[in-house]
Amino acid sequence: MRPDTAPSGGIMTVATVPPGLGSDRRRLAETAADSERRIAALPPPRERTPEQRAEAAAAHDAARRMRARFMNTYADGVYDELTDGRTRQLRVAELATAAAYAFPGLVPTPEQLLQERSRVQADQEGHEIDQGIFLRAVLRSERSGRHLMAAMLRPTERALRLLPEFRRTGVLATEAVRLERRDGVARLTMCRPECLNAEDEQQVDDMETAVDLALLDPAVRVGVIRGGVMSHPRYRGRRVFSAGIDLKATSAGRISLIGFLLRRELGYLHKLVRGLSGDDPDRWTPPVQKPWVGAVDTFAIGGGCQLLLVLDHVVAAADAYLSLPAAAEGIVPGAANLRLGRIAGARLARQVILAGRRIMAAEPDARLLVDEVVPPEGMDEAVERAAARLAGDAVVANRRMINLVEEPLDGLREYLAEFALEQSLRIHAGDVIDKVGRFAGRVR
């Protein structure tokens, strides 16, 4: 293993292999294999008797206790082995895949996950919970967690591949997003008109690509995020910001912990706050950041509302509303539990997150969440004014310092460590499976 340069500069030291790692690795593999054999002998989850469900739970529990104990003891040693002494920057998905092969039984293999995702959510074993145990331990470690977060702030390979064409044309059109640069402003439009911009894994990929391009292009000074015009029957011809997570995709088992929930938080949302990290170990200037404007037409529900919490200026139409119905859906609303109380106060945060309170743009409390409320017909002009104001030379430096105080890196890291496990447990909980299943049945 080789030394590496830390994200903040300086030479990293390479950890020695902890004593006991080899023997405990073998015990972990044996315990996990025994758990898998016991579960494989049972019927699929929905066909199990109460006694068989208890047997499956006991088998999972034995293996997960071993995984948690292993990672609590060896998190940094495991991470160093997977990243060659932190000389390689692996994204979350790459890290989990590497761990599956280097440490059998620690996390599911890609083959196991592919088989799991071929089933509806109700027939899954919840292998992502094992990923949650693994990633909680990695992110809990200041040493390994910071390195992983820096890796997730690197531009994606897809964005780097598309950058020359975007710089030439100023246009990117993907399945779920359109990005257009005009007069120094990158206008990012969410374009899933048939489902009200409900977010799935494709949209997360497209959003991160678009954010990367806006940050990488030196001709862009400000970004604007807005929803496109809908073809959905109830809102045909109207702009909509976002309906949040795609519950139909969730029920079908197509919303994953790593490919959606963690990639979203550690990827494009974190990049909106902190910008991009790079490869130059001697870089002494701050990372590339840019200010962002949000434009809320009709509603920003769930993930759409979460997105607003990382933007620098939010304009809302007077007939719009905001909500975070995650508790009603049975899940955790990303990092909103970390950010909303800071922005709007603890009491309002509890009302919105725990009780599902809907905030209408026209009511006074909305001014805690948005900066301007304008008539629907005045949205275009208000957005342009906001973008012009944020194009000033000193805006980036000041937003960087504000974000440094408001959301310290280690505070977010510690939050996301717990989120990794909490959310993996929630997306496979019985109440969530029932709720998203009923929703999917209504929209078919």
Please describe the biggest sheet, giving its number of strands, its sense, and whether it closes into a barrel: 7 strands, mixed
What structural class should be given to the helix and strand makeup? alpha/beta
SSE pattern: HHHHHHHEEEHEHHEEHEEHHHEEHHHH
**Biggest sheet, spatial arrangement of strands:** 1-2-3-4-5-7-10
Distance between the termini: 53 Å
Low-confidence stretches: 1-13
Task: Walk me through this protein's architecture.
The strands form 2 sheets. This protein has a 7-stranded mixed beta sheet with strand order 1-2-3-4-5-7-10, sandwiched between helices. The protein has a 3-stranded mixed beta sheet with strand order 6-8-9. β3, α8 and β4 form a beta-alpha-beta unit. It is of the alpha/beta class and 444 residues long. It contains 18 helices and 10 strands.
List strands and helices in order, with pairings:
Layout: H1 21-40, H2 50-82, H3 92-102, H4 110-117, H5 128-140, H6 142-152, H7 157-169, E1 171-173, E2 177-182, E3 185-190, H8 201-216, E4 222-227, H9 247-251, H10 257-274, E5 292-296, E6 299-301, H11 303-308, E7 313-317, E8 321-323, H12 326-329, H13 336-344, H14 346-353, E9 359-360, E10 372-374, H15 379-389, H16 395-406, H17 409-427, H18 430-443
Parallel strand pairs: 3-4, 4-5, 5-7, 6-8, 7-10
Antiparallel strand pairs: 1-2, 2-3, 8-9
Helix pairs in contact: 1-2, 2-5, 5-6, 5-17, 7-8, 8-10, 10-17, 13-14
